[in-house]
Write a structure and sequence with these properties.
Length: about 550
């Protein structure tokens, strides 16, 4: 009998071992320019939205079932009739969206910082179509999010706003305010109320309290928000109240997420952590997604602000904590649930490579500048053909440009172009672009009637480029172009015959394309680009493919 019991215990243990499931969450879960994350769970599905500023389409919707594998299924702003950003700098446009779901309807709130102000769009299917934006003019500020209180069937819209009476005590003095929200008619109700003044401790002059959310747990309403500005002093703080309208009392252990006090020279640093949102994972445990960056030196990074994840623990007296700041946030977290791969999803974390075959169309994560002009490009069996427009990437219009995010510190982008320039003003090729004034452009053109390969560097605050180097080409027609990043520098190469690449220029300063140098809130894009440089043209350039590879040492 004892032998039988022992065998049963062994069999059950073996069964549990065989059935055990585990997953390694790899940070960032969305690499590259995917800032200001907001997430909602509906059943087993998670939906993520990020800022896109003045790129189009705007506000990507990404889907996952395991918080590791993500597929872009749509965009909130995918029609020029909804919104375009002509005349705006790339780092303006759409700031910090918030996504929520209630009674079968998805809601995305956001701020068009220079034109539309705060708005809400809705959809019954997160893949779209999403409604035209509905303006909420009473919500004066940025970063709106909607909280649904299921117990009372009420909704509230919470946001960053001006200092009391619009009289700041110091630079960066802001408030968190809230209205009740009529979620059926998409308008505010009643009077605005201020919930937080300055931050968790006004006497310490806290700055930029923003990105607020509310959640309910064990009879408490928790209000949490970013504090310190979206740079090296970034953090996440939390307060709570028994009433949704407050008063809200801050946690004595704030911040609940930051990395600002760690040594700057630590290897593989994750910095600027904040702008977070709580969620429950597939294992029933609590997690937090948040914004952070991966600098290659000091505060220099070209990949933009990215989306990360960390597990959350709760104190005995009911306060959540991700990382107070004594320890480094990790690149890898183990979790006890099954990985769910998505059939059509491109890899988004760790090291990876793939080739986008442009003859099959544009991948959903590819971006245009400010709007989409369907008359300026075509898809065929040859690939993507761009009409050479007079507009350039230095202008505030819609040039012939289609970009893909740089997602690694060590990366490579390659394309094959079929282009016969007819004049020196006609140029087409591959660019690595941070903004209108900070980019490098590897271009095919013509000089004195002969085809040439040219490398340009933008001149900040001026609509012109500096020619860094050039080389003659043997023939016109097809040419392969390659740009590689190595942390703090870029290399530029070309190949006329097969894959026999020749180095045109190496060790160009990557810091010129960093957010710290260029300013703003966006990251670099590898772009397929053609222009007639201010003059009219009927010429075209065809791109066969866009190959991307990322190989950061931390993932090897």
């Amino acid at each position: 009998m004892k032998l039988k019991s022992a065998f049963l215990v062994f069999f059950c243990s073996l069964t549990l071992l065989v059935n055990a499931q585990s997953i390694t969450l790899v940070n960032p879960i969305m690499k590259g320019f995917y800032p200001d994350p907001s997430i909602v769970q509906v059943g087993p599905d998670y939906y993520l939205v990020n800022s896109t500023f003045s790129y189009f389409p705007g506000l990507p919707i990404l889907h996952s079932r395991d918080l590791k594998n993500w597929e872009q299924i749509g965009n909130v702003i995918d029609r020029p009739s909804q919104m375009d950003f002509m005349g705006e700098r790339l780092t303006r446009g759409l700031f910090a969206p918030g996504i929520s779901h209630y009674k079968g309807v998805f809601y995305v709130t956001c701020t068009d910082i220079d034109h539309e102000g705060n708005f809400v769009s809705t959809a019954t299917n997160p893949a779209g179509p999403w409604s035209d934006p509905v303006k909420i003019p009473e919500v004066r500020g940025i970063d709106p999010s909607i909280y649904f209180d299921e117990e009372t069937d009420k909704a509230y819209i919470i946001y960053n706003s001006d200092a009391p009476e619009n009289k700041p005590l110091y630079s960066g003095h802001r408030t968190i305010r809230m209205y009740e929200f009529d979620y059926k008619n998409l308008k505010v109700l009643g009077e605005e109320k201020q919930l937080v003044n300055g931050g968790v401790d006004l006497s310490k002059k806290p700055v930029w309290i923003e990105g607020p959310h509310i959640m309910q747990r064990n009879g408490w309403y928790y209000l949490y928000a970013a504090e310190g500005g979206t740079s090296v002093n970034h953090s996440e703080v939390i307060l709570r109240s028994k009433d949704v309208w407050g008063p809200y009392v801050p946690y004595e252990g704030n911040p609940i997420l930051t990395q600002r006090d760690l040594p700057e020279d630590r290897p593989n640093a994750i910095t600027s952590a904040g702008h977070a949102q709580f969620l429950v994972g597939p294992d029933g445990k609590d997690y937090m997604i948040y914004l952070a960056v991966r600098p290659y030196e000091g505060d220099y990074y070209n990949t933009g602000r990215e989306t990360f994840i960390a597990p959350v623990t709760w104190t005995e007296d009911g306060w959540p904590m991700a990382e107070h700041g004594e320890n480094e946030l990790k690149y890898f977290y183990e979790a006890d649930y099954k990985e769910v791969k998505l059939k059509n999803a491109l890899p988004q974390n760790g090291n990876f490579e793939y080739t986008l075959k442009l003859k099959k169309g544009l991948s959903p994560e590819m971006l245009f500048m400010r709007t989409i002009d369907k008359n300026s490009y075509a898809i065929s069996g040859k690939g993507l053909t761009l009409n050479l427009k007079p507009e350039t990437v230095m202008d505030l219009g819609n040039p012939s440009f289609v970009g893909k995010r740089q997602q690694h510190l060590y990366s490579m982008a390659e394309t094959e172009i079929d282009f016969t320039p007819g004049a020196e003003n006609e140029k087409a090729g591959l660019t690595i672009l941070q903004n209108e004034g900070h980019f490098y452009f590897l271009s095919k053109s013509v000089k004195d009637g002969q085809p040439v390969i040219e490398l340009y560097k933008s001149v900040p605050r001026q609509k012109e480029m500096e020619l860094l180097t050039s080389a003659p080409l043997l023939k016109s027609g097809k040419l392969k172009l390659r740009i590689e990043s190595f942390g703090d520098y870029y290399n530029f190469s070309f190949a006329e015959k097969g894959s026999d690449f020749k180095l045109l220029k190496d060790h160009l300063d990557a810091r010129f394309l960093s957010t710290k140098t260029a300013g703003g809130f966006i990251g670099c894009l590898y772009g397929l680009y053609g222009t007639s440089s201010g003059e009219s043209s009927t010429n075209k350039a065809t791109f066969k493919y866009l190959k991307y590879k990322g190989d950061d040492p931390v993932y090897r």
